[in-house]
Amino acid sequence: MKNPYLPMSVTISKINFENKAKDLKTFDFTFDNPDDAKDFQFICGQFAMISIDGIGEAPFGIASSPMEKKIIQFTIKRYPQGLLTTSLHNLSVGDKVGLRGPLGNGYPMKKIQGQNILIVGGGFALTTLRSVAQYVLHKDNRSNYGRLTMLAAAREPGEMLYRDDMTEFEKALNTEIIQTIDRPAEDWTHKVGFAAPVLKEVAPSPKDTYALICGPPIMIKTCTDVLLELDFDTDKILNSLEMKMACGIGKCGRCNVGNKYVCKDGPVFSYKELLELTKGCGL
Amino acid sequence: MKKLKMINKKDITKLLDELAKNYRLLAPVEKDGIVNFTEVQNGQDITLDFYNSKEPLKKLFFPQSETLYCYSKEQGRTVPEEQDKRRKIVFGLRPCDAKAAVLLDNVFDGADFKDPYYLEKRENTIICSLACNEPQTSCFCTSLGLGPGDKDGSDIFIVDIGDKYLFEAVTQKGQKLLDEMTGTYEPEDKDIKKAQTLITESENKIKKQIETACLSEKLDELADSPIWDELAEKCIGCGICTYLCPTCHCFAIVDEASDCKGCRVRNWDSCMFGNFTLEASGHNPRPTGKERMRQRIMHKFNYFVKNFDANACVGCGRCFRNCPVHNDLIKVIEKINNAKSEPKK
Amino acid sequence: MSDDKEKTKEEFEPKIIAFLCSWCSYAGADLAGVSRLQYSANIKIVKVPCSGRINPFYILKSLQQGADGVWVSGCHPGDCHYLTGNYFARRRFTILKRLLEYIGIEEGRVHFSWVSAGEGQKFAEVAREVAESIKKLGPAKRLVKK
Amino acid sequence: MSDIQQQIQEHAKKLLSDKTVDLFIGYKDINEPMLTEPAFIRDAKDADQLIWNPFCEHNLAKYLVGRNEKIAIVAKTNDVRSIVVLINEQQVIRENLTIIGVNCDDVIDRKKVEAEMDGKDITSAQIKDDKLIVKAEKISKTLKIKNYLHDSCLDNKRDMSEICDIIIGEKSSCKTEEDKYAKIRELEQKTPEERWEYFKKELSKCIRCYACRNACPLCYCKSCFVDQKFPNWVGQTTDLSDTMCFHIMRALHTAGRCVDCGACVRACPNGIDLRMLTGKIEKDVKELFGAEAGLNPETDNPMTSYKEDDPEDFIK
Question: Which value does ipTM take for this structure?
Answer without folding.
Answer: 0.92
